[in-house]
Specification:
heteropentamer, A: about 400 residues, alpha/beta, five-stranded mixed β-sheet, about 15% strand, globular, B: about 350 residues, alpha+beta, six-stranded mixed β-sheet, 9 helices, binds adenosine-5'-triphosphate, binds magnesium ion
C-alpha cells in the first residue's frame, strides 16, 4: 500500500523511532502492521519500530544506554512500574504540551476520549507524563470443567475468601491445584490482592504503608493457600500458566493479555470473571501494561511523535491493538463502536470481564526516587519469602516496608 | 620338576574373526623356566595374557595345577606378572608399589613389612624405598617390578619381555638377577622374549612360535641343534643358518651347478622321506673356508667381510644365493674366490614342501 | 560364573550410561517433536513424541513474522568473524609459544592462560562502556569486538603444536626450509585437524553466545538467534511453546550439522585438552 | 632449537592477542576495581567516590552470604555431576565395559554444542513440576513432583542439572581421554593383584589421571559458575528470594537490572579475588601432587 | 679416502652449566663410515647434532671441507640426516616426502622427478609412492627416510640410530641396505649407535665415547683387539671381557691366592709403566677350560652354564670375582672345579689407576 510514491517522498520524511516491548507472540506483529500502515498514510513521518527484549525493564535499560550515548528515541512504551523512575531520570514531553503545541485544534483530545481514572494512571505530581496505551487488567480465569468436577458453582467465586474455599475444594476433590496467581518479575498481581482488601501501597508522599492490617491479611490468605492448604501453586509465571492451560489448575489469576494463549491451548471450558474483592470490600485493579511517552528532543521529532501517537490512539488502531494483544483499550468509546471492538467482544466474551472492571483501575504503584527499582525488587523478594513459607507474613511485609522507606530517595 | 603346573590344551584365541593363536598345546612343569620365543606379532604376549587371565580363552582349556582356569578372573589366579613397561604405579613410592597389592589383599602389616624388606634387599633396592618410579633408572625400575612380583610369593611368574627396555650391558646383569631369583624361590617361569640370546641362556625349555602356532618346544640345545623345520633353523643362531635348495640324484646332492656326494648316514633318512627335493641348512659356524680348492669343496665369491671382533663373517655368493660363513681368520678380500666345505653330520635337511626336518644324523 | 558376574556388571553400567544418553538426547527429541505440533496439540498431547497432526506452521510463522534471515545472517556474521579472528590470533600466539624462546615467554603464556579464570562479570561493565563509548551499542560489531582473541584457543593450539615431533622441524631446517615455509608446509598441515575443530567450537560457542549480546543488541533486526528465543519466553502474552521450539531448532541446526560432519576431529581435539 | 629465527617475530605473533587482552580484559579488570569505589548508576554524569562504602554495604547485606553459600553449593553439585560422575563413567567405560566407547562419546558430547538458552527453556518445560512430561509420567505412578523452581535448595540442584546437561559431555570426553592415557599395564597389574575395582578407581586411576582431573575440576568451577548464569536468567532470575542466585548472576543483576554499578563492581572484584585464591590453592597444594604422564 | 671431510677441534658443548661434550677432537675422512658408539647419554646424538647445525657449538671449531661452520645455519650445510624416529612428514605421501626438500631448494622439476624415481627403485619402494607414512611398516619407513636423505645428494650423511626401532631380523637386512647405498654414493657417513654389532660391521672406524669424552677412535679390529682402556675392553665384545686386579711381584702376577709367571714379552711394558698394580683383561673366548689341573692353570668353581647354541658360556667363581669363559664343550656342571689357562699374548694389561692400557704384545 505504501506504493511507489514513498520512494521519492522518503527524503524529506522525518524519521522517528518507536520503542516497544511487544514480542512476536504478544502484539509484535500488530506493531509492525500499524507502523506499516501509518508509514503508508503519512506524508512526512516515517516510523521505525524497535523491539526491546526483556519487557519494560529491558526497554528502560536500553533507554539508559541510549541516553548515555546522547541519543533518544521519539516515542517509548513505559511500564507502569517505571512511571516515577522514568519521569525522574529522562526528559519527556507532557502530552498536553504536545497537543497544545502541534495540534491546538484537538485541545480536548485527552479529556474527551479517556476516563479520568485511566488518565490518572500516567500522571505524576507534576502532571501528565504520557498517555495510557496498553492496559492490562488482572482477571480470574476459570477451568469450568474442573469446577464442575469439584461440584462448584461454574460462575466462579465472588470474593477472595471464596476463592480460597474453591481452591481447597478443587484440590481435595480432583487432586489438582486450585489456583495460580501470576509471579513474574514484578508484584502486580499481589498488589491487586492487597488493594482489593483495602490496603494502600504507598502514601501520597511516597511512604510505603502496605504492611498494614489489610495488606497483611490479604497476603496471609494467599500464603495460607500456598503453604497451609497447598491448594495454590507457587511457580514462575510461564510454568504456572502452562499448568493451567494443560488443565492442571482450577483457577488462574493473571492478566487479560493471556486470553488468546489460554484460548488457543485449553481443551476445557474456560471463562473469565472480574478480579474478585475481599468480602465486604471493593475490588481494585492496578493497571498493567504501559503508557506512551514522547522522549523526542527536537521539535520536528516531537511533532512527528505526536502525529504517530494520535494514529495509535485512533479507534481502529486501538481495536486492532486489543485484538492482537488482549489489552483493554484505554479509550472510552472503543468497546461499543462498530469500527471498534463490538464484534470482537461478541466472539471473545472473556474480554468482557476486563472491560467491566475498567472503572476499578488504579495506578500501579511506582516507588518514587532513584531506588524505585530496588523497592520493587524488595517487594518481589518478600513475595518469594512469604510464598516459600519462611517467616510470618506480617514480619516479612513490615521488614520490607521498613527497608523500602529507608532507601535513599 | 616333573609335576605339571600350567597346561594349555588346544587353546585358540580369536580377535573378531582373526585367529591369533591356533590350537596351542603346551605344558609347563612346576619350577620350570619356559621361554616363549618368536618374531613380533606371533602371539607370545597373547598366550601369556591368557594364562594370566587378562585375555579370555576363545576355545580349549587352560589348566593350572590341574584345575580348569578359563573362567577364573585374573585376580584369583595367584599369578605374578612382570610387564615390558614394568607397569609400576607412578604415584606410589617404591615401598608402596611393592606393598600395595599385599595390603589390599589383607596380608597383615608386619608380614607386608617383612616381605618388602626382604625383596628390597634381595634386589639391591635398599635406600630407594621412598623414591618414586620416575626418579629411578630403567634398570632400577625393572628391579622394582621384579621385587613387586616376588613379594607376592606366587608360584607362577609370568614375564613379558621384561628386559627389552634395558640397554645391552644392563640386560646381562638383569638376566643374572632373574636367575638368582629363580634359584631362591623356584617359581614356575613363563618368559616371553624375542631375543634368542635371552631365550637360550634363560630357558629350561623354549617354545618357539610363529603366526600363532607352536613351531617347536624343546631345550635350547635341541632348538639349536635339532631344528624341527626351516623356520626354527633360520630363527635361531646369528648369523642365520644358510638355506639352499638341493635335490638328490642317486647318491649325489645337486645344487644348481655344483654337486656333492651325499653322506651315507643320510641315505636311509632320505629314502624314508619319499621326495627328493630338499632344503639344505648349514650354520655359518659349521662351514670351513679355504682359499684352495679341495675335493668335495664348493666354491663362491666373497662379497663382503664383517668384523665380529674375535671372528669374521664372510658373506659370499654361492651360485644364485648369498651365504655367510664364520671364520677365525680375517684374511679375506672382497671379490676373491673361496672354497668351502662342511661336515655333513652337522647339516640339516628339510623336505622342500613341508619344510620339516627329515631327521638328524650326528 | 565369575564371567557372568562380570557380564552383569557390564549390563548394569550400560543401563546407567543409557540413562545418561536419554537425558542428553531427550530435550533435543522433545524440541524436534514439538516444533511440528500446533499450539493446542503441544499443550495437550505432551507425551506423544510423534505429532498426530504434524505441521510446519510454526516454521512458517517465524520466518514470516521475524526478520529471521537477517537474524541468521547476523548470527553467522558474528560467529564467522569471531571464529576467524580467534583462530588467527590464537594460532599466531600459539606458534610463538610453541616454537621459540623469548624473554618473558613463560610468564606471558601463564598470564594468557590465567585469563580463562576471569569471570565475565569482571569485565562486563567496562566493556559495555567501551562499546557504548565507541558507538557500537546495538551493533553486531559491538558483540564481536571484545571477542577477537581466546585464551583457550591459545592453550589448545599450543598443546597441539607441542606434539609435533621436534625432528620434523629439524629435518626441514636441514633442508633449508625457512620459518614461513615450516609454518606453511609442516606445522599448519599437521595442526589442521585441531584448527578445524577448535574453529568449529569457536563458531558454535559464538553462535550460542547469549549474555554479552543481550547487553549489546537492542534492536530485533540486529539480534542473534539465541536472543530471539528470549522473545518467546515468559512474555506477557504467554509463551508459544511450539514456536519457541521451532526457533530452537533453527538455532540448533547449524551447530548440529557442523558437529555431525566434524565430530571425529572435534572429539579428538577436545579429548586432548586436559592432557598437559 | 627455536623454529622462529628472529625474536621480534615471536613478539609480533603475540601482539594481536596481547592488545586484545589488554584492552578488553586487563584494562576492564582494573576499571572494575576502580568502579567498586564509586557510587554510580551507569548513566549519570557524576560518579561519587565513596571509598570502601560499596564493600561495607556488600558485607552488611545478608544476601551476600546467601549468595556465597549458593555459589558454594553450586560448586559442590557441579563437581559431583560434572566431575565425579563423568570421571566414574569414563573409568567404567574404559576398564569395565570397554565396548561402545565411541558411540557413547558421540552422543554424550552432543548437548555441549547446543545453546544453553535453548537447553534451559527446554528443561523448564520438560521439568514443569505440574504439567511437564516428567511430572505427568510421575503422576501416573502417584508421585507429585515438588515445585522445584520455587523451592530454595531444590532450585539450585535443578539449575545445576540443566547446566550439567551442557557441560557433562565435554568433561566426559576429556576425562575419558585422561583415563585412557593410563598405561593399560598398570591396570592389568592391579587386576592380577586382585585389587577390587573401586580401589583401582580411587587409588590408581584417580591419582594417575590427576592432571586431567585437576583441569576438569578447575574448569567445572570456573566455567560452570558462568554457564549457570543462563539458566538462572532464563528460569528464575535469581529467585525465589535469591535462592538460585550466584555471585556472577548477582553482579549482573546489580549492574544491569538495578543499575548499582559500584555494588556490582565490588562483588565482581570479590569474585575475582576468590577465583584467584582458588587458583593459588590449586597451584600450591594440588599441582605438586599431580602426576603428569610421561614425566 | 684420505681427504678430511669433517673435523671437530676441541669441541665442547654446555647445556647451562653442565658440560655434555668436553674437548672433543675428531676428524672424519671423505667417504668414510665413522661410527659414534657409546652407552646411553654419552653425547653421541649431541655430537651429531652439532655437526648438523641443530645444536650450537659451545666452544671449539667445527670444520667441514676446511671451512669453519660454527655459525653456518643448518640449512646451508648441505648435510643429510636420518633420525631415529625417521621424521617423515606424516601429511605427505612418500613421493612428496622425498621431493619436498628438493623443491624448496628450487631443484628443477624434472630433476626432482628423476631423483625421486631413482631412490625409490634403489630402495625397493616402487609402488608405495602414493602411500602415507602411517601406511608403511617400520622397515619401509626407515627406507623412506634413507631415500629422502639420499635424494638430497649431499656428501655428508648423518644417521642417529636409524635401525634401533627395527626388530633383529630387519636390522640385519637394513644394515646391508645401508652398505649398498654407501657403495653406490660414497658419502661420508657419521653413524650413531649403541649396538656394538652394528658398529663393528658397519664402521670403517669407531669413535667410542663415554660421558662426553672420546675413549678411543680406531678401526673395529683395533677397538676389539687393542682396547685403549678398561672401558673400551669391557664395552666391546659379548660376553664382556673379564677384568681382574693383579699386582706384579718380581716376574709373577699375583692374584689374591693364585699367582702366575708373567710372560717375558710383558716385562718391558710393565717396567715402562712404573706402577706394579694392574687390571688384567681376558676375553671369554681367549680362555681355555679344563677339568684337569695343568701347570700354569688357575682354578675356579662353575657357577652356571649358559647355552649359546654353537658354544657354551661358563660362569665361574675365581677367587672373589666372577668370570666367564666360552667353551666349545657343553660338558660342564654347576659346582664343578675347573682349571683355566689363557694365552698371555691375547690378554690386556691396564694400569690400575689410569685404567689405560700399558701396551700390547702380540
Ligand atoms: N586387541 C587385539 N585385537 C586384535 N588383534 C590383536 C589384539 N591384540 C593383539 N592382536 C594381534 O594378535 C597377534 C599377536 O599379538 P601379540 O601381542 O600376542 O604378539 P607378540 O608375539 O607378543 O608380539 P611382540 O613381540 O611384538 O610383542 C598380532 O598379530 C596382533 O596384531
Ligand atoms: N636439551 C638438553 N638440555 C640439557 N641436557 C641435555 C639436553 N639434551 C641432551 N642433554 C644431556 O646431554 C647428554 C648427552 O645426550 P645425548 O642425547 O647426546 O646422548 P646419546 O649418547 O645420544 O644417548 P642415547 O643413546 O640415549 O641417545 C645426556 O646426559 C643428556 O641428558
Ligand atoms: Mg608382546
Ligand atoms: Mg641419542
Amino acid at each position: 500500500t505504501s506504493g511507489n510514491q514513498s520512494g521519492s517522498g522518503e527524503t524529506h520524511k522525518t524519521v522517528i523511532e518507536y520503542w516497544h516491548v511487544n514480542a512476536q507472540t504478544q502484539g509484535g506483529q500488530a506493531v509492525d502492521e500499524l507502523v506499516k500502515d501509518f508509514n503508508a498514510k503519512s506524508k512526512d513521518v516515517k516510523v521505525v519500530a524497535k523491539y526491546n527484549p526483556d519487557m519494560y525493564k529491558g526497554l528502560m535499560q536500553n533507554l539508559q544506554a541510549e541516553k548515555a550515548a546522547g541519543k533518544s528515541p521519539a516515542l517509548v512504551q513505559v511500564g507502569w512500574a517505571y512511571l516515577d523512575y522514568f519521569s525522574n531520570n529522562f526528559s519527556y514531553l507532557d502530552p498536553n504540551d504536545a497537543i497544545a503545541k502541534f495540534d491546538p485544534k484537538n485541545k480536548s483530545f485527552l479529556k474527551e476520549n479517556f476516563l479520568p481514572n485511566v488518565l490518572h494512571l500516567a500522571q505524576n505530581k507534576k502532571g501528565q507524563v504520557g498517555i495510557p496505551y496498553s492496559l492490562s487488567s488482572p482477571v480470574l480465569y476459570l477451568n469450568k470443567d474442573l469446577l464442575k468436577k469439584a461440584g462448584l458453582n461454574e460462575n466462579g467465586p465472588s470474593s477472595w475468601q471464596e476463592v480460597r474455599q474453591f481452591a481447597d475444594t478443587i484440590k481435595k476433590k480432583t487432586g489438582n491445584y486450585g489456583l495460580y496467581v501470576q509471579e513474574p518479575a514484578d508484584t502486580w498481581a499481589q498488589q491487586a490482592l492487597m488493594l482489593s482488601n483495602g490496603a494502600q501501597i504507598i502514601t501520597k508522599k511516597g511512604k510505603a504503608v502496605f504492611a498494614s492490617k489489610e495488606g497483611i491479611e490479604a497476603y496471609q490468605l494467599y500464603q495460607d493457600m500456598v503453604v497451609k492448604d497447598k491448594s495454590a501453586l507457587h511457580l514462575p509465571w510461564d510454568q504456572g500458566v502452562d499448568a493451567f492451560v494443560k488443565g492442571k489448575v482450577g483457577m488462574l489469576y493473571t492478566t487479560i493479555a493471556q486470553m488468546s494463549n489460554v484460548k488457543a491451548g485449553a481443551q476445557f471450558k474456560v471463562s473469565t470473571i472480574p478480579s474478585p474483592p475481599f468480602e465486604g470490600k471493593e475490588a481494585k485493579v492496578p493497571a498493567g501494561g504501559s503508557f506512551l511517552a514522547i522522549t523526542a528532543q527536537s521539535e520536528d521529532q516531537q511533532k512527528a511523535a505526536w502525529e504517530f501517537e494520535k494514529y495509535l490512539y485512533s479507534r481502529q488502531s486501538m481495536a486492532k491493538w486489543t485484538e492482537a494483544t488482549g489489552y483493554v483499550p484505554p479509550r472510552k468509546d472503543v468497546a461499543q463502536a462498530k469500527d471498534g471492538l463490538k464484534d470482537y467482544i461478541a466472539e471473545n466474551p472473556m474480554l468482557k470481564a476486563a472491560l467491566d472492571q475498567m472503572d476499578k483501575a488504579v495506578p500501579w504503584t511506582s516507588f518514587p526516587g532513584n531506588s524505585g527499582l530496588q523497592a520493587e525488587q524488595i517487594m518481589i523478594d518478600s513475595r518469594d519469602k512469604i510464598l516459600g513459607g519462611s517467616g510470618s507474613v506480617s514480619k516479612t511485609l513490615k521488614d520490607a516496608q521498613q527497608q523500602i522507606n529507608q532507601l535513599e530517595k | 620338576m616333573s609335576e605339571t603346573c600350567i597346561q594349555l590344551k588346544s587353546v585358540s584365541k580369536m580377535y573378531g574373526n582373526t585367529k591369533v593363536i591356533s590350537d596351542l598345546n603346551l605344558s609347563v612343569k612346576k619350577g620350570e623356566r619356559l621361554i616363549l620365543l618368536g618374531p613380533s606379532g606371533c602371539g607370545k604376549s597373547t598366550t601369556l595374557r591368557m594364562i594370566a587371565g587378562l585375555e579370555t580363552v576363545s576355545s580349549g582349556d587352560l589348566m593350572i595345577d590341574g584345575h580348569r582356569m578359563n573362567d577364573v578372573p585374573a585376580g584369583k589366579r595367584h599369578i605374578s606378572m612382570v610387564f615390558q613397561d614394568y607397569a609400576l604405579y607412578p604415584h606410589m613410592t617404591i615401598e608402596k608399589n611393592i606393598a600395595y597389592g599385599l595390603m589390599v589383599n589383607k596380608v597383615n602389616k608386619e608380614e607386608v613389612a617383612r616381605r618388602v624388606d626382604q625383596v628390597l634387599s634381595i634386589l639391591n633396592l635398599k635406600g630407594l624405598e621412598r623414591r618414586y618410579p620416575r626418579d629411578l633408572s630403567g634398570g632400577q625400575r625393572q628391579r622394582v617390578a621384579l621385587a613387586r612380583s616376588i613379594a607376592k610369593q606366587s608360584t607362577i611368574f609370568l614375564l613379558d619381555e621384561p628386559l627389552s627396555n634395558l640397554d645391552a650391558q644392563m640386560r646381562v646383569s638383569a638376566r643374572n638377577e632373574l636367575l638368582k631369583i629363580h634359584e631362591t624361590y623356584h617359581q614356575t617361569f613363563v618368559y616371553v622374549t624375542h631375543d634368542q640370546m635371552e631365550a637360550m641362556t634363560l630357558g629350561h625349555r623354549i617354545a618357539l612360535m610363529r603366526d600363532g602356532q607352536l613351531q617347536m618346544l624343546a631345550t635350547p640345545y635341541q632348538i639349536y641343534h635339532r631344528p624341527a623345520n626351516v623356520f626354527v633353523a633360520k630363527f635361531i643362531g646369528t648369523p642365520a643358518t644358510n638355506i639352499v635348495h638341493i635335490h638328490l640324484d642317486g647318491d649325489h646332492f645337486h645344487f644348481q651347478n655344483h654337486s656333492l656326494t651325499a653322506g651315507k648316514e643320510w641315505l636311509p633318512l632320505i629314502a624314508a622321506n619319499g621326495s627328493n627335493e630338499f632344503l639344505l641348512g648349514i650354520r655359518p659356524e659349521h662351514m670351513q673356508l679355504s682359499k684352495i680348492n679341495k675335493p668335495g669343496a664348493l666354491s663362491g665369491t666373497v662379497k663382503r667381510v664383517e668384523e665380529y671382533g674375535s671372528r669374521t663373517g664372510v658373506i659370499f655368493n654361492f651360485e644364485e644365493s648369498e651365504m655367510i660363513a664364520i671364520s677365525d681368520s680375517r684374511n679375506w678380500r672382497n671379490g676373491e674366490r673361496i672354497y668351502f666345505t662342511f661336515n655333513q653330520k652337522a647339516m640339516y635337511l628339510f623336505d622342500k614342501d613341508t619344510e620339516k626336518t627329515i631327521g638328524f644324523v650326528d | 560364573m565369575p564371567e557372568n558376574k562380570m557380564e552383569w556388571r557390564r549390563i548394569i553400567w550400560h543401563l546407567v550410561l543409557i540413562v545418561f544418553v536419554l537425558v542428553a538426547l531427550f530435550p533435543i527429541v522433545f524440541a524436534v517433536s514439538n516444533s511440528f505440533k500446533g499450539l493446542s496439540e503441544s499443550y495437550n498431547s505432551i507425551l506423544q513424541l510423534i505429532p498426530a497432526h504434524p505441521t510446519i506452521e510454526n516454521y512458517k510463522t517465524i520466518f514470516t513474522s521475524l526478520p529471521l534471515y537477517q537474524i541468521i545472517i547476523n548470527t553467522f556474521t558474528v560467529a564467522t568473524v569471531v571464529t576467524l579472528f580467534k583462530l588467527v590470533t590464537s594460532y599466531l600466539a600459539a606458534y610463538a609459544f610453541s616454537f621459540s624462546h623469548f624473554f618473558g615467554d613463560k610468564l606471558l603464556y601463564f598470564l594468557f592462560i590465567a585469563t580463562i579464570f576471569v569471570p565475565f562479570t569482571v569485565t562486563m561493565i567496562p566493556n559495555y562502556l567501551i562499546i557504548s563509548r565507541i558507538g557500537l551499542l546495538n551493533n553486531i560489531y559491538g558483540v564481536i569486538l571484545p571477542q577477537l582473541c581466546d585464551a583457550t584457543g591459545i592453550f589448545l593450539l599450543t598443546q597441539t603444536m607441542r606434539t609435533i615431533p621436534k625432528s620434523l622441524i629439524e629435518v626441514s631446517r636441514l633442508d633449508g626450509v625457512k620459518t614461513v615455509g615450516i609454518l606453511r608446509d609442516i606445522v599448519f598441515p599437521l595442526t589442521r585437524p585441531a584448527v578445524i575443530s577448535i574453529g568449529i567450537m569457536f563458531f558454535i560457542n559464538s553462535w550460542n553466545e547469549y549474555v554479552w549480546p543481550t547487553l549489546i543488541l537492542k534492536d530485533r533486526a540486529n539480534f542473534t538467534l539465541p536472543l530471539i528465543l528470549q522473545m518467546f519466553i515468559s512474555s506477557e502474552g504467554g509463551t508459544n511453546f511450539p514456536i519457541a521450539m521451532a526457533i530452537s531448532m533453527v538455532t540448533m541446526f547449524i551447530p548440529l550439522v557442523l558437529y555431525l560432519f566434524f565430530q571425529k576431529y572435534i572429539l579428538n581435539t577436545f579429548s586432548q585438552s586436559g592432557i598437559k | 632449537m627455536s623454529v622462529i629465527s628472529k625474536k621480534w617475530i615471536s613478539y609480533l605473533f603475540i601482539l594481536p592477542s596481547l592488545v586484545i587482552f589488554a584492552v578488553f580484559l586487563i584494562w576492564p579488570g582494573i576499571y572494575t576495581v576502580y568502579l567498586s569505589f564509586l557510587d554510580w548508576n551507569l548513566i549519570s554524569p557524576t560518579k561519587r567516590f565513596v571509598g570502601l562504602q560499596n564493600y561495607l554495604s556488600l558485607f552488611q547485606d545478608p544476601t551476600l552470604y546467601k549468595i556465597l553459600m549458593n555459589t558454594f553449593v553450586y560448586i559442590v553439585i557441579l563437581l559431583v555431576i560434572n566431575c565425579f560422575m563423568p570421571y566414574l563413567l569414563a573409568f567404567v567405560l574404559e576398564f569395565v565395559i570397554v565396548r561402545g566407547k565411541k558411540l557413547y562419546k558421540k552422543i554424550l558430547f552432543l548437548p555441549s554444542i547446543i545453546s544453553l538458552v535453548v537447553g534451559s527453556m527446554l528443561y523448564v518445560w520438560i521439568l514443569n513440576p505440574v504439567s511437564g512430561p516428567i511430572a505427568i509420567i510421575f503422576k501416573k505412578i502417584g508421585i507429585d513432583l515438588p515445585t522445584w523452581s520455587s523451592t530454595s535448595g531444590l532450585v539450585l540442584v535443578v539449575l545445576s542439572l540443566i547446566t550439567s546437561w551442557k557441560v557433562f559431555g565435554y568433561n566426559f570426553i576429556v576425562l575419558l581421554a585422561g583415563v585412557s592415557n593410563i598405561p593399560s599395564g598398570v591396570i592389568e597389574a592391579a587386576k592380577l593383584d586382585n585389587i577390587p575395582l573401586h580401589r583401582i578407581f580411587f587409588q590408581i586411576v584417580l591419582p594417575m589421571s590427576s592432571a586431567t582431573g585437576i583441569y576438569v575440576l578447575i574448569m567445572t568451577i570456573v566455567q560452570g559458575l558462568q554457564y549457570i548464569f543462563t539458566p538462572i536468567n532464563v528460569v528464575t532470575q535469581g529467585g525465589p528470594n535469591y535462592a538460585s542466585s550466584n555471585m556472577i548472576y548477582h553482579a549482573y543483576q546489580q549492574a544491569f537490572v538495578l543499575y548499582k554499578t559500584g555494588q556490582s563492581a565490588a562483588l565482581s572484584t570479590l569474585t575475582l579475588l576468590l577465583f584467584t585464591i582458588l587458583l593459588f590453592l590449586e597451584f600450591r597444594f594440588v599441582e605438586r601432587k599431580v602426576y603428569y604422564a610421561g614425566k
